[in-house]
């Protein structure tokens, strides 16, 4: 079952600062809901473990995340594949693009993502999976914005 998600987030930081945060494993780990680990294991390659609840099913996933199509400091594609034991599997990718905001200290982050799920999770239906995926994306970008604000406060 494939789910598509797109959206945007205004972030009160320069595009350079947002780009740096998008490439910081510690920040990404703090932003991904349910993330237990997020480690760089190679050039543009990460290993992650997360726990996600889809409706009544709570599943642990572990897998690899790759960053590609890098156009620093403006855009990249982040993709991954993960196995979730009996719950199923997940794979997906997101194209992330940074645009200048109305001021030099503002950035508009735009994303287009798709996820493919299989196994028990896919049996929950497109509505549950889609709703959960949108909520996870929203939480991620809220947390990302909070991390940027925290960085701004500590560097001031």
Automatic annotation (TrEMBL):
InterPro entries registered for this protein in UniProt: CO_DH_gsu, START-like_dom_sf
One matching Pfam family: COXG
Protein name: Carbon monoxide dehydrogenase
Native species: Limoniibacter endophyticus
Upper lineage: Bacteria, Pseudomonadati, Pseudomonadota, Alphaproteobacteria, Hyphomicrobiales
